[in-house]
Amino acid sequence: MSKNVQSLQNLFSLYEKASAQVVRKDKSIVYTSFIYSQCIKRIIIFLGFTQSTSNDINFNYLCIPMFKRKPRRRHLQHIADKIKCMLDTWKGSILSIMGRVLLVNLIIHSMLLYNFMIYFWLISLLKDIDKWTHNFIWFGDIMNKKLVTTA
Fold this sequence. Notes:
Elements: H1 2-19, E1 29-30, H2 37-47, E2 50-51, E3 59-61, E4 64-66, H3 73-89, H4 97-116, H5 123-139
Parallel strand pairs: 1-2
Antiparallel strand pairs: 3-4
Helix pairs in contact: 3-5, 4-5
């Protein structure tokens, strides 16, 4: 086991030299499952990392939430809130309808596509986002709930 851990530490050193990036041991956390506690303690001490004290894995990596099992509303709500905040702060009233469509297509839909590659989203969250983008495109305000009439 110590040979494997030594190889892992050598890999981190090679990565640091090749990329000019430093592995921050104070920020690195080891998540474990079904490993003897003595074994994991030796690995953590040898590498200098910290161990997760929680059984539930909840953290963000590259702005993507990491968790076990199926996504729930609480896991993805902060992304939906971020989209709502973006739509709310944009000045839709001074943009043309085409400008608003362009913003939604380029920014909001690309954010969602990035997340769709990783998670299945809940229908309720998607309906909320669809309602906000619809209101933003047609009225420039996400809280405006008028009907759209066409000729």
